[in-house]
Design goal:
The chain is of the alpha/beta class and 350 residues long. 33% of the residues lie in helices and 24% in strands.
């Protein structure tokens, strides 16, 4: 199936959850992660071209609902996403999302898609893309602390993009660890189930924390973190939500996506407003140093940013043409005479 031509713009391609899963399997999970990372890296290289704003958030005691918009002046994209940690107790996802891509020149949408699955993929692709710049050279082992919905994607992205061969799993809920280990069986990784966060970090050059509690927690204490490691802190961030002991931040070189957002939602809530951080796009463009020594502790204080979703939307749009993995939504009124919307309504009655 071909994507809509300009004369057919009233019809918007829509990718359902079922079609997203079919698309992932048609490409292959690891190949898709690699390709997504390339799209994200490309947009990071054009970072100054983008409109940037911290996500627009509506917080409640139960969770948060957010809009994440951006544009490169040619295309516009946004994602709707929630974060409700209590949902798992009710059999619901902690995070759900959908997104839209539009043509800046006309304002017409060009893609509507589920982004619950796609966000998991783009988050993992971003983590591994960043780790290529910040993790110790030749890293083979990752500690995966928090074995919820993100853990398998993170593990496979680090394998496909960074060459990780071993993942050490830990979660406060042993059933989550069992689930992750089961899902990663046969995926080409050595999987080790661990009894504590500290145990999971044994021999790990990359430490990924991915927890969802809506509180200031201490998943990593200062004495748990030795020199020469890369910390990938990707848990469900929001004001008042952190995972690392503040002392770690004072020992690490910190890298962020968009400082105005990270200072509100990220680990750097726990340090002074003027605590130095480096923007990742500057590292990718060679304007700032990434990992510069074997003893350095690097920290990716990831909160997720709209440009990463924009990249994922672009990628899906590019991969749809010539497939049947989307539906055409009749979602835009398109009268023959643009001034005669009421006439279109009346003719529908007839």
């Amino acid at each position: 199936m071909s994507l809509p031509k300009p004369s057919e713009r009233a019809f918007v391609p829509f990718v359902s959850v079922d079609n997203m899963m079919r698309l992932v399997h048609s490409i292959g999970v690891e190949r898709m992660l690699v390709e997504l990372a390339a799209y994200i890296e490309e947009d990071f290289r054009h970072w100054p071209l983008f409109d940037k704003t911290p996500r627009i958030a509506a917080h409640s005691k139960e969770g948060v609902i957010e809009l994440m918009p951006t544009s490169d002046g040619i295309q516009y994209g946004f994602k709707y996403v929630n974060g409700h940690p209590k949902n798992t107790r009710e059999g619901l996802q902690t995070v759900t999302a959908f997104g839209l891509l539009a043509d800046v020149a006309t304002g017409y949408p060009t893609l509507l898609t589920e982004m619950t699955m796609l966000t998991a993929l783009r988050t993992a692709a971003t983590s591994a893309m960043v780790a290529r710049y910040l993790a110790p050279k030749g890293a083979t082992t990752m500690a995966m602390i928090g074995n919820g919905a993100q853990s398998e994607f993170q593990s496979l992205a680090m394998k496909a993009i960074c060459g990780i061969t071993t993942v050490r799993l830990y979660d406060t809920d042993p059933a989550a660890t069992d689930k992750a280990a089961r899902n990663l069986e046969g995926q080409g990784l050595t999987v080790v189930k661990c009894s504590s966060a500290e145990d999971s970090m044994e021999g790990a050059q990359i430490i990924t924390t991915c927890t969802a509690d809506k509180q200031n927690a201490t998943i990593l204490t200062d004495n748990m973190v030795g020199t020469g490691v890369h910390i990938n802190a990707i848990g469900g961030d929001c004001p008042g939500k952190t995972e690392l002991a503040p002392a770690i931040l004072h020992r690490a070189d910190i890298f962020v996506e968009y400082p105005p957002q990270t200072r509100v939602e990220g680990e750097i809530q726990n340090v002074a407003e003027d605590h130095p951080v480096t923007e990742l796009w500057q590292v990718i463009e060679g304007q700032a140093a990434g990992r510069s020594s074997t003893s350095q502790i690097t920290l990716f204080d990831s909160v997720g940013f709209a440009i990463e979703d924009f990249s994922a939307l672009r990628y899906i749009r590019d991969r749809l043409d010539g497939t049947d993995l989307f539906d055409q939504l009749d979602m835009l009124a398109d009268p023959d005479d643009p001034r005669d919307l009421f006439g279109m309504l009346q003719r529908a009655k007839a």
